[in-house]
Each structure stands twice: as C-alpha cells, then as structure tokens.
From TrEMBL:
It comes from Seriola lalandi dorsalis. Keywords: Lipid biosynthesis, Lipid metabolism, Nucleotidyltransferase, Phospholipid biosynthesis, Phospholipid metabolism, Transferase. Residues 295-312 have a biased composition (Low complexity). It comes from the Eukaryota. Its EC number is 2.7.7.15. InterPro entries: CCT, Cyt_trans-like, Pcy1-like, Rossmann-like_a/b/a_fold. CDD domains: CCT. Pathway: Phospholipid metabolism; phosphatidylcholine biosynthesis; phosphatidylcholine from phosphocholine: step 1/2; Lipid metabolism. SUPFAM superfamilies: Nucleotidylyl transferase. It catalyses: phosphocholine + CTP + H(+) = CDP-choline + diphosphate. This is choline-phosphate cytidylyltransferase. Belongs to the cytidylyltransferase family. Gene3D superfamilies: HUPs. Pfam families: CTP_transf_like.
Amino acid sequence: MEGTIDSCPRLGPQRHYSTLTEPAIFARETSCDCRAPHEKLTIAQARRGTPVDRPVRVYADGIFDLFHSGHARALMQAKNLFPNTYLIVGVCSDELTHKYKGFTVMTEHERYEALRHCRYVDEVLRDAPWTLTPEFLEKHKIDFVAHDDIPYSSAGSEDVYKHIKEAGMFVPTQRTEGISTSDIITRIVRDYDVYARRNLQRGYTAKELNVSYINEKKYRLQNQVDRMKEKVRTVEEKSKHFVYRVEEKSHDLIQKWEEKSREFIGNFLELFGPDGTWKQVFQERSGRMLSYALSPRGSPSNSPPRELSPLRSPSPPSPPARWHNARPSPPTSPKGASASISSMSEGDEDEK
C-alpha cells in the first residue's frame, strides 16, 4: 500500500493513503513485511520523526468485541503517537478469549473484519497472543506497544503489560468514558424483553431467540397491545387535527357571516333608512301624483271659442262632435229644451 507524506503543524509528517477503498492487510504468520533496517528506537527519537522507509511500528492488541467508538478512539490515539506511525492491531482468537475472558458476541472472523475496515489500522494480526513475549516482538519488529495505562490482570498476572512497561516500550492511550463492550451488553440484558419482542416482530423465530413458548406468546400479545396503542394514538392525533381544522373553518365561516350580515344591514339602511333611496323615490312619485291632482286639465285646441256673457259665468266647454248622430247633452232649462227639439226637427227635414 503506497502512501504520500504531508506535513501537519501538530503531528508532523503524516502518511495519507492515496485511496481508502481497500481494507487493511493481514499480517503474515511467518515473517514481517518491513524490509528497512530495524534498529531500536527510543520514544524521544520516534517523536522527532523517522525516515519514510522506517516508520515507527506500534502494536495495539485486544478483543474488540462489538467494535465501538471507544475502540476506534484508542486506535486513533495509537496511530497519532508519532509523526510516522505504522499501526499493527492484534486480535485474539475465540479460543483464547473464551478461556481467559469469557464468551464473545462476535466471532473472531467478524472481529478481524471489523478491525480491517477501521481507517487508522495499517495491518491486522489474527490469533494474537494473550501475553507478549520478546520473541513475538522481535518477529514482528515492534517498536512500541499502545494500551491504556490501567493494569490489566489476567492469566495469573497482575498486569500482562508489566514487562513491556519495564522495557520502556509501553506508550499509554486514554480510555473513552461511557462506552465499552460490557456496557453495551449490559444494556441489551437489561432491556432483553424489548429486543426479544422487536426481533420477533421482525421475523425471527422463538427458537432463534432462545425464547420459550410461553414467553413467545406473551411477547406477541404485548406487540399486539403496542400496535393497538399506536393506532389509538394515531387516531387521537388525527382527531385533534380534525377538530382543529373544524374550529378553524367555523371561525372563518362566522367571520364571513358577520361580514355578509354587516354588508346586508348597510345595504338595507341605504335603501330603506331615513335618507334612503326608497324614500326619495316615494317622495318623487307622491309629488308627481299630487301635482297631477292639483293642476287643472287644459281645454282642447280645436274647440271654437265662445263669447262670454257679462251676466253669466262661463260654462265648461262641451266635448267636440266626433260623429253625426251624437246624442245632444240634456237641456239645462225649459227654453233650451224646446230650442233643441226644434233644431232636431229641422235637421230631420234636411236629411229627407
């Protein structure tokens, strides 16, 4: 894996690989790939920097079960201990781990692959030893060992890194508080029922989960109850939303009704009020009717003028003769009646 060297003000020259699409390599079981002369380094020399072809080989080992951010941060610290670091990570096998520490959640192959895909790791050493021997350190040309400074008692020893510390090859890293494999397992055990119900709901069988028949039925019933609660909660939320929309619509309708009512009242007052249009129209019509009633009717223009007697008041004009056989008006006096009869007889004689 070829790399380039860049300069960092805080950490000095750093190795950046041209690509991160490939996982870290596995270490060879028989020999070391390092071909450069491997003279022993002190911590001061390593911190000042080494040639490109002579990186400082740092070794960090562990179980790395349920690989988490605490593991990654420890490896990040180990990778950045020196300006030119080549990080080798040893992972113990299932056999050693079950013997000295206990059962693991992940298999050794799953743990190997998890470490290969960590960006800080350059090489993964499978089936790492539980205790580091001088022969092992020499075989893999390890300069320093990185681990947290807390004494690690195991395999009959108070601290398996005691001889590494005495040889001046130990470089401490800091643990990340609040996260560990044991803490994660504790959470799963504490909430076992929740995770068992969850996996049953996702299609796992009771046999795969090592759940008894009674517990399986209990978990499935609890899942149904939870689904019903969720449906009720959903209906309640929808009902609240519906009621809110109805209230909002009702408010809008009431507001529009009030606006229309004010508009209707205004139009009514404008038409029928004290100074409304209807009153003006009524007054105009009443005035015209009154003027018609009070003004006299004019006489026709084609009636002949009559001479007025100084002793008598003028009589109303007689209607014009429209046809020949019109009836004469009744006489107003006996003399007038005799005169009209004589005139009618004269007219009859003329027709004969």
